Amino acid sequence: MNNTELLIDKIVKGMQDKKAHDIVVVDLSPIEDTICKAFVICTGNSPSHIQALSDSVADTVRKEAQSKPTAVAGLRNSQWVAMDYSDVIVHIFLPEERDFYDLEHLWADARLTEIADLD
Question: Which of 28, 72, 84, 107 is most buried (CB neighbours < 10 A)?
Fold first, then answer.
């Protein structure tokens, strides 16, 4: 498992530990001139759920992949939190924001992998 795959695996684990919904991994690696190799996107139920999800992702990745995000944005209002792990960018949305921005469909060439909800 390479570093990007390990990061994605631990990000998904952190999301699942706090019951994220509709987790999707967007593989951008075959596409030239993208800002990263992958997005991992999920939905939270409320601003407090989004904060719990971002905390869980950060803790899981730090402990199990020895990595910290280079930047985290959106915690102030917790409607859309982005966590930059260089090769992988995490997006945690409220449902309305996720529907509006529709990040997983910005690149038609990207391969999408849907992760089943655990509950």
Answer: 28
